[in-house]
Write a structure and sequence with these properties.
Layout (H helix, E strand, L loop, with lengths): L2 H5 L5 E5 L2 E4 L9 E7 L4 E5 L5 H14 L6 H24 L6 H10 L8 H17 L12 H12 L9 H18 L26 H9 L4 H13 L3 H5 L6 E2 L4 E4 L11 E4 L2 H7 L9 H9 L1 H14 L13 H13 L4 H8 L4 H7 L4 H5 L14
Antiparallel strand pairs: 1-2, 1-3, 3-4, 5-6, 6-7
Amino acid sequence: MSTQDVQADLKGLFRRWRGKYIAVAGDVDGPGTIYYRWQAYGSRECVCLDTKDLDEALEKRARLMETHVHASDRAGYLRALVELGRRAAKELRMLETGVVIPRISECWALFEKSRRRKACAARTMKGYRQRWDVFEGWCSQGVTYLDDVTAGVAEQYVDYLDGGGSGKELTASTVNTHLQALRYVWRIVGPDLGCPFDHLSSRAKKVEGTYRPLEVAELRKLLAGCEDAEVRLLILIGYWTAQRLVDAALLRWEQIDIGRGVITFEPRKTSRLRKLVWVPLMPELAGELGEAGEGYVLPGLAEYYERSAPEVSRSVTRAMTRAKLEADAVGRVGYRSLRSTFVTRMDEAGAPAHVTDSVTGHDSGSMHRRYSKTDVETAREWMARALVDVAKGV
């Protein structure tokens, strides 16, 4: 635990040294045994935690707070007594019946250790953990055990996500992944309890979530105003390869065969299928890439993506904002606009759908229709080339 984290929650902790009580917050690493003092409706209580180690003291204080009354007034005192009685009754039932109901704070550790859990990639586990941490942080004092989460509580939590209470405006897809993660953890750690999230339907994806293609003039304006060299190259990789952000940002030199003029991708979105996508390395992109190197093509962005993928996406969005690229009736703008641009330009050139899909990695006509935004007038025109060198002269 870092010093900054510790100092945020040291209220009531004191070290006894040479007959005096010294607040731990003022001397985190000082000598002396640690005590915990708190107010209990008109009287001050003090308990020796029998340790000089701060981390151990914090753990002991957490257990102590579950079994002692902490209140500054009569109403708070009575509410604390009711809560302690509720917890005691639950623990007594578990002792009498032998049925152990895990605490929400214990569930993740149980999930990780469970043999019922299917093996999955580290990235998938990280996603499960992040979503469980959000849920655990939301749970109030009255939501301690897994069976405390009723259908009503589950609905309140989803309302919290829908309303942006988590501090971010979550899309329908993100809310759905939260639900999927919670259902899975529930099935593993509480198979006999029933999951309160099962009755909730998936959130419908909004039509306005689609991304519109960009015009050549817009792309040139975007590149001209791009201040970061790696972000600029990331945009060009997206334009010439139609790959998703994760695959473009984490592109490695080993994937690029300059001699054959081919870039090989294994799209991470469909990594479980082990499907490879071969994308022609166009001369315009090859010129922008320059001489072959080792490791990541975009080392700075790759490292940044591993730490904060959404922030890399936002860096492209900010560049588009500076270029004054705006949403319209077709859709909004963002990194995925580059993918939409590729499909649209291929349509305009009259390229067969299966050729376009072989580059984007799509297998279904529905996905092709989602990204293709060709209007009637543009569809009438046949173009000799699908893509133009948007970086020329920029």
